[in-house]
Model the fold of this input.
Amino acid sequence: MNYWDGQIQIGKRKYSRFIGGPLDGITDSPFRRLVRDFSPDNLLYTEMRHVGTIVNKVGGPKALNFMQAERPLNYQVAANSTRFIAEACEKIIAAGVDCIDLNIGCPARNVVNSGGGSALMSDPQLLANILREFRRCLPEQTFTLKIRAGYKHKNGLDIAKLAQDCGVDALAVHPRLQTEKFAGRPDYSLVYEIKKSISIPVIVSGNIVNWATAKSAYEQTGADGFLIGRGIWAKPWKLAELDFNAKTMGQVYPISQEIMLKAAYKHLELMLDYHGKTGMYCFRKHLPFYLRGFTEAQNLRKELMTTESVDYMLSSLSQLVACQQASL
Ligand SMILES: Cc1cc2nc3c(=O)[nH]c(=O)nc-3n(C[C@H](O)[C@H](O)[C@H](O)COP(=O)(O)O)c2cc1C
Done:
């Protein structure tokens, strides 16, 4: 069977090989709902929440920050000890998700200073206790792990084997050290070594933004799936595009500028619906990416980035959509 016709098996379920990765503050609940307009079935990761935050309900009713319409979802957590894991898992499962993911790839200073995120990769004994506790609390549910190449030193291969031994169902690898953050070339040769050495599915993360980079990542790693991070930013159609490319072996995904701008408009609506007026300020992180390449929008961009009027932003975007329709 052609690799690109196949799917990735994670736990008991099969998914498209193209998976929506977690980007804190970007791939949030409104964005994930927008992705569903293009990709109803691809697995999407939530952004990371510490298990203690979930147990203590920080963030009130939105502490679990997702809606059922976003499923299938891999709910991502952080932990720096076995404390809170049992209660957090119970709450997440009760809320209804498809998998739970532990992130030990986070490089953020506040996270590693408390012993969580990628710092856990430097403490295999503690990590093993934490992984076994998750497995104990998730006997029937799917439990995945996201790692880096290592913390300060590259030990991703040992950690991958440990993860498999502790019963993890699938492993996502972002092959950079904590010290590299998100820059430089991801070490795909490490992912190749990991894929060769373990039998659970391996998902590669890092610099996969289109069909050419996905194909090249597969050729270099043999991974079973692809976690799309920054490539999905302001491109909610990205997973659908990659699925189309894989099905047609690289034909150009047919998407019009009108559909792109309509997606931007809907993104703003979903942000307002979720956050109230502050949704407009949050949307500013996305707007320049949506407007890139639209010459008509050059002059508007600055005004939209500074306006305090939700109505002005909505009407300007809807005029841009109308402009595209008129030019057809
Ligand atoms: C702004 C930003 C936020 C991120 N937030 C998370 C996160 O919450 N959890 C996580 O596992 N990875 C997070 N990542 C890492 C990405 O999921 C991904 O592994 C990394 O960016 C490499 O993939 P990419 O080149 O496709 O972006 C974040 C990355 C960025 C740039």
